[in-house]
UniProtKB/TrEMBL annotation, chain B:
<dbReference type="Pfam" id="PF01381">
    <property type="entry name" value="HTH_3"/>
</dbReference>
<dbReference type="InterPro" id="IPR010982">
    <property type="entry name" value="Lambda_DNA-bd_dom_sf"/>
</dbReference>
<protein>
    <submittedName>
        <fullName>XRE family transcriptional regulator</fullName>
    </submittedName>
</protein>
<dbReference type="InterPro" id="IPR001387">
    <property type="entry name" value="Cro/C1-type_HTH"/>
</dbReference>
<dbReference type="GO" id="GO:0003677">
    <property type="term" value="F:DNA binding"/>
</dbReference>
<feature type="domain" description="HTH cro/C1-type">
    <location>
        <begin position="11"/>
        <end position="65"/>
    </location>
</feature>
Length: 117, 420
């Protein structure tokens, strides 16, 4: 599941992962993300740090607070210059950080590594 | 050498600096050499005609002999000597330097002041880059567009068998993102150009600009003050001036001239009694007293954090422009005890030992009612006193850095004055 508010980035990621054989659900609003994760139980959550509705950090903390979801792999998308937020996300239990802009091959490899492919 | 030599000492310094003998100068002045000797050792007071002729004989101004080099200049040079690299400055010969090379001393002090201004400008710009939300948003926008372009271009370049439908979609995305990038870059350039202009216009802090403006108009805040305030160069200085003028006109509205003068007379100038008669805030009365045209009183107003909101200096009492004032000011005693009047006789530490009757009072208001926060302010009105200090007088300074009071238990940092 991809939670990213930039439509063109979301489209690129969706294309890349679909090509790699993933099923991708994309959301643009942080407010509905937690509920969607609970319903869909995805194998991997890709979460942008800066989102409308609810920040990626808050969503991550909510997921990690639930024992049923605490083991869910989460990749955080960050931008340069968000050092402090990144530290907070690290403490909150993000599994991996991907800094924008990223190389496509690197991105797909990171997603694979998180689900043990 | 004393910190600030007396008139006689300055006569002597000046004469020695010119390489003249006492007899020569005495003759030119029309006094005896032994009388000049007494003058030079501060054993005879001089003034009037003798001083004028003496100044003439020494090719200097009466003011220079009477007041010596301006305190501000001496203070600026002492502060310069505290800066890194200033260890070798001959502080003990400061008065001689000031006397012999007033021009160079002015240049040195001016350079130091300019460095201070530039340091503050750099700090302000650093702050802006680190915390400016507009800059942050502009950079984020550019970064987002770049990320999108990179991924999309990567897909187009690396996916050989891409469906025509997807390809045209990604091309359209690329085009949109390139437009976004162009706009973002343009916004950044505009922003940075604006910053450049601001930085060069920032000659000195807004507080300094406001101080100069207030001093130039003799703290007269009526009439054209509101219009003139708009001519200040920085937004911050303009805003501060506007607030001052607005507060003053509100005070004048509550305490109109005729009624205020009558109450002042009936209450013998006691701010508490004036406030009681007129049913107004004591701080308004204090401001009204200090800001009426030609007022001799000085006034300091601070907020609950002790930050100085208003400083009207009086000769002999110059509150610091930056940083906190002297911890011993009755202002701060009043701040911790709202609605309790505190009166004290103050003697300023230092050569002149200017004396003031200080009256301090703090008020608390609740602009947002029971649910809101307390806004506390304290004011201290200073009325210059003549004559000799009484034993009960409280010795205070302006601020530690320029206070000569040795062994003060309330000192928080060393003084830049020699020997403290």
């Amino acid at each position: 599941m991809l939670i990213e508010d930039e439509p063109n980035i979301a489209e690129a990621i969706r294309f890349l992962l679909t090509r790699d054989g993933w099923q991708v659900t994309a959301l643009a609003d942080g407010g509905v993300a937690e509920q969607a994760v609970r319903q869909d139980r995805p194998d991997l959550v890709i979460l942008d740090l800066m989102l409308p509705g609810r920040s990626g950090l808050e969503i991550l903390m909510a997921l990690r607070a639930d024992p049923a979801l605490s083991g869910l792999p989460v990749m955080m998308l960050t931008a340069k210059g968000q050092g402090r937020d990144r530290e907070a996300a690290e403490r909150a239990g993000a599994d991996l950080f991907m800094a924008k802009p990223f190389a496509n091959a690197e991105f797909v490899a990171a997603a694979r590594s998180l689900v043990g492919l | 050498m004393p910190l600030n030599a007396l008139t006689g000492s300055r006569v002597r310094e000046r004469r020695l600096a010119l390489g003249l003998r006492q007899a020569e100068v005495a003759k030119a002045t029309g006094i005896s050499a032994s009388y000049l000797n007494l003058i030079e050792h501060n054993r005879r007071r001089i003034a009037g005609d003798v001083l004028r002729r003496l100044a003439q004989a020494l090719a200097t101004e009466v003011d220079a002999l009477e007041e010596g080099a301006p305190d501000d200049l001496a203070e600026a040079l002492r502060a310069a000597a505290q800066e890194p690299g200033g260890e070798r400055a001959e502080l003990e010969r400061l008065d001689e330097y000031l006397g012999r090379f007033p021009g160079w001393a002015g240049v040195t002090a001016g350079l130091r002041q300019r460095i201070g201004q530039l340091e503050r400008a750099v700090a302000a710009l650093n702050d802006r880059i680190a915390h400016d939300p507009h800059l942050g948003a502009a950079l984020h926008e550019v970064l987002s567009a770049v990320s999108s372009v990179r991924s999309t271009a990567g897909i187009l370049a690396e996916t050989e068998d891409i469906e025509p439908e997807w390809r045209s979609r990604f091309h359209a995305n690329l085009y949109k993102d390139s437009e976004r990038l162009a706009r973002g870059a343009e916004a950044l350039v505009t922003y940075l150009e604006g910053a450049e202009q601001d930085a060069t216009a920032g000659t000195g802090s807004p507080e300094e600009e406001l101080d100069r403006w207030l001093a130039a108009r003799g703290w007269h805040l009526e009439g054209d003050a509101a219009a003139e305030a708009e001519a200040l160069s920085t937004d911050v200085a303009r805003d501060m001036a506007r607030r001052l003028v607005a507060a003053h006109s509100a005070d004048v509205k509550h305490l109109p001239d005729g009624a205020f003068d009558a109450a002042m007379e009936a209450a013998e100038g006691d701010p508490l009694r004036v406030a009681a008669r007129m049913g107004s805030s004591v701080l308004s009365v204090m401001r009204r007293i200090a800001l009426r045209p030609g007022a001799v009183e000085g006034l300091v107003v601070c907020d609950a954090a002790g930050a100085l909101l208003l400083c009207k200096p009086v000769p002999g009492f110059r509150p610091p422009r930056f940083g906190a004032g002297c911890a011993l000011w009755p202002l701060f005693s009043a701040l911790t005890r709202p609605f309790q009047p505190i009166a004290a006789e103050l003697v300023m530490a230092g050569r002149n030992g200017d004396r003031f009757a200080a009256r301090a009072y703090a008020e608390a208001t609740f602009p947002d009612g029971f649910a809101g926060v307390e806004v506390r302010q304290a004011g201290m009105l200073l009325t210059p006193l003549a004559g000799i200090a009484s034993a009960a007088a409280l010795r205070v300074g302006a601020t530690c850095r320029i206070c000569p009071e040795g062994g003060c238990p309330a000192r928080r940092e060393p003084s830049i004055l020699a020997g403290i």
